[in-house]
Amino acid sequence: MNSWLKTSRLCRYYRRGPQEIRAVDNVDLTVRRGEFLGVVGSSGSGKSTLLNLLAGLDTPTSGSIDFNNVTLGSLSRRELSSYRMRSVGMVFQSFNLLHYKTALENVELALYFSGTSKAVRRERAESSLETLGLSDRLDHRPSDLSGGEQQRVAIARALVKEPEILFADEPTGNLDHDNALQIAELLAKLNREGLTILLVTHNLDLAGSYCSRIITMNYGKIIDDSSGTRGV
Amino acid sequence: MKLRDMIEISVGNLWRMKLRASLTISGVVIAIAAFVSMLSFAAGMEENVSERFDRLGLLSTMQVYQQRSTETDTTTLNPLDDGAIEALLKIPGVTLAYPYDVFDVTVEIADTQFSSKAQALSGEAARTRLFSQFLAGKSFTSDMANQAVVTESFMEDLGIDEPDSLIGKKLIVSIGVSSLDSALAHLIESDGETFRERFSRIDVDSLIDSREYLKRTYQKELSEATRRFLEGYFGARDKIADTLQITGVIERTRGRSRSAPILVPVQTGKLFSSSGFSGNPLELLSTIQSGTFFESAPDPSSKSYSRVTIEIEPTVPFGPVKDSVTALGFRSFSYAEEFEEIRNVFVYFNMVIGLIGFLALITVSLGIVNTMVMAIMERRREIGVLKSLGADESEIKLLFLTESGVIGVIGATAGIVFGWLITRVASFIAKDVMVSKEIDPIELFSLPIWLILAAFALGLIVSLAAGYYPASRAARVDPVQALRSE
Prior knowledge:
Strand order of the largest sheet of chain A: 6-7-8-3-9-10
Largest interface: A-B, 27 and 23 residues
Number of strands of chain A: 10
Largest sheet of chain A: 6 strands, mixed
Low-confidence stretches of chain B: none
Structural class of chain B: alpha+beta
Shape of chain B: elongated
Radius of gyration of chain B: 38 Å
Low-confidence stretches of chain A: none
Number of strands of chain B: 11
Mean pLDDT of chain A: 90
Oligomer: heterodimer
Strand order of the largest sheet of chain B: 3-4-9-6-8-7
Strand content of chain B: 15-25%
Number of domains of chain B: 2
Distance between the termini of chain A: 15 Å
Radius of gyration of chain A: 17 Å
């Protein structure tokens, strides 16, 4: 597997009053293509901040992130947006679906910024939802869907762009046990199909069961980097 | 992101917050409607003035007058006579020159007799737009026809309301011509007492001896002679009359282009205007003053006119023509120049009204800013999602600018329609009032295409300007913070 996402001495500090918070502190990490990387740690350990930095949503205080031999820090804002649009898919704990749009429209939204035509957008969104077993929920609004279905819509929205890597930030955090397992199974299936996934979770069992590699963070640092069950 | 998609998303977003959006749009509608209706009134008034000037052909005519004599100026003034008309016709761009050849007449029509004024008019002059605004009938058929065209004011003098009723009516036009012979005859013999009898009463010796007697006598005799002369001059006039048929009735002409109530063909007019002195005392004084009183008959070619109207080709600028008229020793007046001044007044009027409308829109723009800022605060999370999906700052900015632009487009379009409706209602009421006050109803409002475009552009520009700050703020939203927000 290739190491095409790599951080070097990555830091993200910010101030809260007089106090300096070291959310990510000198992190050297290499993510290989096709990997299912779990990032675990307690609340405030810096998992989500690391994910946001890797996804290009946040800017590091120092250090660098290289993706496909391109340093994200050297990209303009527009290029960074393009990176998020073309290479990155994101799934959040709270789904972040637009409540006034249908499932289909929410998925379509991901294709607006690539200039895809309306017909193609619709076709690909429908296909993506069908793949995730939501073909009968196309015209449902998020409020009409269960938590698991909403997260599957969110995953469909992330996948419709055909990203190279999927960043999932606590995707099962708001789901009950059964739905959480279903989502985890789904992610594992996607990974088996070749998608690189970086899963942030505080659920060690889940990470241990499905991830090929697990890193543990504490106070912004990686304190452990080990193979998961699947990787063994 | 495509513009079409942006508009679709923006319309969808505004639709979601119908109440707030409709209130904001209502503000734009009212401001634009006020702007449109006020400027529509100004445009309507300008159009009315312009149309009237143009319809009467006033924008292509110039009035030429003799220079005013001043006490210090002792040079001889150029007479505005037929020679001057010839000279005026030679000015490049001048297509026609005709005099204001007016004379006092007594008219008799349908047992009614009254004093009026008649104007001799050539066929060419009669065909100009000024004399072609027929309420009924048509112009005379030739320069020698025993026909007349009368104006609205003639109708009023007669107390007639229906212009058609005058067509074909016989009009007896007469002029009393004072004779020098009758005046002299009356001076010599009058009141049954001969000149010899009068002379015999004067004491010749006293005339020689007493200067006082001499003075009293010549004063008395001179007064008596003057009285007798004038009595003979005005009292024993010859009457020249002609019967004319009324062929047409034209609209009243006003101001410096006014015409006499009766228009007659030029050759017919000569019968009256060259038959000696009229009963006008001013004319008598003028001839005495000029020393031409005892000349046998006035030469028609030496007749001087109070004004001459010249027609100018529409494509020819007035400036050089005016200069040429001045160079000939005359002064001029043109409605085209006056119209320019009127237009300048309208420009200032429009600017003031436009400014009021603009200030109203500025007030409305604060509402747009408020709406958009509220929208951004409520949609922070959405902005975060869009950024996570790959939207860049310029796209977020454009998305919100499009939203305020849609407010402007809808508001401006509806405002133009609403403004137009206001003008229709106001016009209907105004016309009703005019009719009730027996005034010819006119259209007070006009909605020219430039006004529609200006109102639309103003609504759009103000809305975009109002949306710029909130849109910039939206573009700067930190996606990480936004995605965390509740």
